[in-house]
Design goal:
InterPro entries: ATP-dep_DNA_Helicase, ERCC3_RAD25_C, Helicase/UvrB_N, Helicase_ATP-bd, Helicase_C-like, XPB/Ssl2_N. It is an enzyme of class 5 (isomerase). The strands form four sheets. Strands 7-8-6-5-9-11-10 form a seven-stranded mixed beta sheet. Helices cover 37% and strands 21% of the residues. The model is unreliable at 22-37 and 651-660 (pLDDT under 50). The longest helix is centred in the last third of the chain and has 25 residues, at 626-650. The protein is α/β, with parallel strands linked by helices and 660 residues long. The protein contains 26 helices and 25 strands. It is globular.
């Protein structure tokens, strides 16, 4: 590297380096910018530097973290990271000055300064908001003329209301703006074109204090319940996130990224407590709905009668409750996207606050159209896993708002806010007959049957048995993730394996009441192993679990990897050894599964998790009861026979997926 450094470079914690090779999807993980200019340079933070913590807190406000380890952290500047910075009150000069202050480099590369100038020029020139149940956007007149010259395609969705002047705080001058009313349900389209196509960072603010100051005394008494119980308080990273949401007496819409187990739900609750108005919370699964309700009752002074649950199984919606001004309504995506006529009671209301849990699922077609009908003054998206295999993750930044805060898993582990997970990948072979069948289908490129064979490899259950023995001896609590739980159940052998190990199986077919009963037994230490289908990938609240074992997985889904790790990442007491949690991936060697898991492995390593690869033969389990060992051998022989029969019967045209 020919880069010249400042004389006092040792006092500065970052280096700006040119990238010769394009970044991988994991490194440039969120794929949030179409303009590749920012990918030419990488900002490297020395985590061992004495000023590293302060530098990281600065960098995270205008740069996107691309990989994290104990000693080194890398960042990239993108349009979306600059969108975050401007929403948090930064401007072009401040960003460039901070980079210069922190960098060892004698000069900031011109490509970076040009990129910053280009992508900050339109801030404070477009404002998006809800007013009297309609969405509006105010665009500065000069910018509007420029957009028209550049063929801005949304004018048909805008109705001119008026021209007015407003003060630009950064330049201390008044500018003329044009106020537009947006056509019903077209606000996503308008924001998409402004943000994605024209790099206009649309500002979304809500003056939440305005009405609170004018509330009557009897209403003020009702608001007393909008507070945390005195025995609970937020962690430092949650407080930082809350401050970024509420700045300059305004509430800002946007996305919060916190690792699994770092308290996203509690943060969301505190946003609602601060708004003190009608709030709609949309969860992913039914489990999540009840978890949010439970958390509100545990952490706050909220009256149970002011927390409404809305689910598809209900015959009638609580219309009386929905009419209240100070109500928390919790539902899930399935309900919002249902074709029930009474769902209009929810979609036609004006919501001061909309919280979308697991917001990475928003781009999905079945929920996206219904969310666009909702009217909210303020939107907050919560996620631990800002990843999508279809690269649509950037949609959440024009549908919700820019990223407002992100906490790094490495830092939270060091502060003791989440558990330290040690990741182990275990290679396992196939029996000769099984391997021959795999090679047979490989020759004809039957991907579906090949996938089924390596995912349902009975040898994996031999490894699973050994891991259960090892961790039961340590008195650990185990969760098993199985992608093919329904297909294995069809063979009848999974139930036999579960019965041998005294552990239940939970798939989508198991009713909620039965699931709750099993979870209760697990939390009371009357069960120590549960086998799950995909249903446990998110929204599972079993904080005592400290061992995760995945015997099959959803191809290269990085999101699933982190979601499953998140099930065991809650903070633990009475830690044994350096690591208090273990996450295993059992992979069939000599198959495409190795390649698939490699992509997931790289993503995990880039987030600073320790990772080890071993063979099945290296495991040293305790002595197993001879009778149980013999039973296991019979079960696995039967499993192999039935899996091979299933593949032979279904043949090449079978594309059935498990119904989770």
């Amino acid at each position: 590297m020919d880069e010249k450094f400042k004389m006092d470079h040792y006092l500065r914690p970052i280096i700006i380096m040119r990238i010769d090779e394009p970044l991988t999807e994991q490194q440039f993980r969120s794929n949030r910018n179409n303009d590749t200019q920012s990918k030419k340079y990488e900002i490297i933070l020395e985590k061992f530097h004495r000023d590293a913590a302060a530098a990281e807190e600065t960098l995270i406000q205008f740069a996107e973290p691309s990989s994290t380890t104990t000693n080194i952290q890398t960042f990239i500047i993108t349009f979306y990271s600059l969108y975050t910075a401007m929403t948090l009150g930064w401007n072009e000069e401040r960003i460039k000055n901070e980079i210069d202050r922190l960098a060892k480099n004698e000069r900031i590369p011109k490509d970076i300064t040009d990129f910053i100038e280009k992508n900050t020029q339109y801030f404070n020139r477009a404002y998006f908001y809800l007013e009297k149940e309609s969405y509006y956007i105010d665009i500065e007149k000069k910018l509007l003329e420029e957009l028209k010259q550049r063929n801005f395609g949304q004018m048909n969705n805008l109705t001119t209301i008026e021209n007015y002047e407003r003060l630009d705080g950064n330049l201390n001058e008044r500018k003329t703006f044009v106020k537009f009313k947006i056509k019903t349900n077209e606000h996503f389209s308008v924001n998409k074109e402004l943000v994605e196509d024209f790099n206009v960072p649309v500002k979304q603010e809500f003056d939440y204090l305005k009405d609170l100051e004018n509330t009557k005394q009897d209403t003020q008494k009702k608001l007393q319940q909008f507070r945390m119980k005195a025995i609970y308080q937020l962690y430092s990273h949650q407080n930082r996130a809350l401050k970024k949401i509420f700045q300059n007496d305004k509430a800002h819409s946007g996305v919060i990224i916190l690792p699994c187990g770092a308290g996203k739900t509690l943060l969301g609750i505190n946003v609602a407590l601060k708004i003190k108005r009608k709030t709609l919370i949309i969860c992913d699964q039914v489990n999540d709905v009840f978890q949010w309700q439970k958390s509100f009752l545990k952490f706050t002074e909220m009256d149970k009668n002011n927390i409404a649950i809305i689910l598809r199984t209900q015959q009638e919606l609580p219309t009386v409750l929905l009419g209240r001004e100070h109500i928390i309504v919790i539902t899930n995506k399935d309900m919002i996207s249902s074709n029930r006529k009474d769902i209009k009671l929810v979609t036609t209301l004006e919501w001061p606050l909309l919280i979308m849990d697991e917001v990475h699922g928003l781009p999905a077609a079945q929920i996206n159209a219904e969310i666009s009908k909702l009217k909210a003054n303020m939107k907050i998206g919560l996620t631990a896993t800002p990843y999508r295999q279809d690269n649509k993750i950037k949609e959440i930044f024009y549908k919700v708002g820019p990223k407002l805060h992100e906490s790094m898993i490495v830092d939270l582990k060091q502060m003791g806010y989440v558990s330290k997970i040690y990741c182990i990948q275990i290679y396992v072979g196939m029996q000769d007959q099984y391997k021959q069948k795999y090679e047979e289908y490989k020759r004809v490129n039957n991907q579906f049957v090949m996938n089924t064979l390596y995912q349902m490899n009975p040898k994996k259950f031999e490894v699973l048995q050994n891991l259960i023995l090892i961790h039961r001896a340590r008195k650990d609590k185990i969760l098993v993730f199985c992608e093919k739980v329904n297909k294995l159940a069809d063979t009848g052998t999974l139930e036999k394996f579960a019965k041998l190990n005294n552990c239940p199986i939970i798939s989508q077919k198991v009713e909620q009441t039965e699931r709750s009963a099993i979870y209760k037994l697990y939390q009371e230490d009357k069960l120590d192993v549960i086998i799950f289908g995909q249903i446990a990938d998110q929204g599972l609240d079993l904080p005592s679990a400290n061992v995760g074992i995945q015997i099959s997985f959803n191809f290269k889904s990085v999101r699933q990897e982190f979601q499953r790790m998140g099930r065991i990442q809650r903070r633990k007491e009475n830690q044994i050894g350096e690591y208090d949690c273990f996450f295993y991936s059992i992979v069939t060697k000599g198959t495409k599964e190795v390649e698939i898991q490699f992509d997931r492995q790289i993503a995990v390593i880039n987030q600073g998790y320790p990772y080890e690869i071993i063979s099945a033969e290296e495991l040293k389990p305790p002595q197993q009861d001879p009778d149980k060992k013999q039973q296991l051998e019979k079960i696995l022989d039967e499993m192999q026979k039935k899996v091979l029969e299933t593949c032979t019967k279904r043949g090449e045209d079978d594309r059935e997926e498990d119904g989770y």
